[in-house]
Amino acid sequence: MKDIESLTYDELLETFKTILKTNGLKFTAQREAILKTLYENPDHFTPENLYLLVKEKYPNLNTGITTVYRTLNLLEENKLATSLSFGSQGKKFELGNKPHHDHLICESCGKIIEFEDEQIEILQDKIAKRHDFKLTDHLMQLYGLCKNCQNKN
Amino acid sequence: MKDIESLTYDELLETFKTILKTNGLKFTAQREAILKTLYENPDHFTPENLYLLVKEKYPNLNTGITTVYRTLNLLEENKLATSLSFGSQGKKFELGNKPHHDHLICESCGKIIEFEDEQIEILQDKIAKRHDFKLTDHLMQLYGLCKNCQNKN
DNA sequence: CTGTGTGCAAACATTTTGCAAGCAG
DNA sequence: CTGCTTGCAAAATGTTTGCACACAG
User: Is B122 part of the contact surface with chain A (CB cutoff 8 Å)?
Assistant: First the structure.
């Protein structure tokens, strides 16, 4: 499978429909609305944020937050989305199955920058090997102040 | 200040008392019980786990989980403890102010192995610089299967 | 004594679950 | 039609707060 982030929306939608069919699940308007909202806003969402945005964009669907949670979990189980745990509480989700990218998080304004670094990947593999671990995933988050917020003070 | 993890318990206790005094706070039996339990069990605790262990070791103090939370937050604010956010929910705490160490986490048995790697630190600084970030902290967690759990299958 | 600390219960915040009605296939 | 899906309300977690009493300094 291609990386999710390089798919057009139609390709993504097809992938999603295939997953649903394979699992005997149904394609519904709410599920599509959530997928599309994630696709069109390449940010990191809390379930709450996403819920509000979906309600705003598709008010007639009257989507419940329960459905947002259920859909996000469904997407994550099928590798169409990824969740991140942050400092204090809550989770954030992003569309895509990006095994090799990490996050820089501004502690002042909350901005999240994604980055990739192959050398980090290589080092992680070495470390895992050193401890007899078979790696399945990793999480790296760098916290600090972004350029803007450094200047504010 | 020396690294927390190299302190004897008495030194740690003195550090804690100094912090309390400096902040006009009081040294209580519950706070000591929690600190001592953390010191004697160099593991990663959820507040719940720690609460149960403290209750078991010091049943007469009748420590409440509220106090455990409050004490952990107090320790964290004063850099005597660090908390980690994990996958789904909850936090884990560990004693110590260890700015430069990270975790390997077994997804099967939950075991946590700590490691340090200077090269990773160096790379992180480079990445931050590349994005004009001023780093204050970082979190790196590698998920996988430990040796034992690989063999189980 | 004074004011901080404590445990309890209640409040909160986030996420999950039970259920009856709705709708996709 | 069948049974998966939905929204709602309620439950389940994990964490914080209000309060009256306890106790450290």
Answer: no
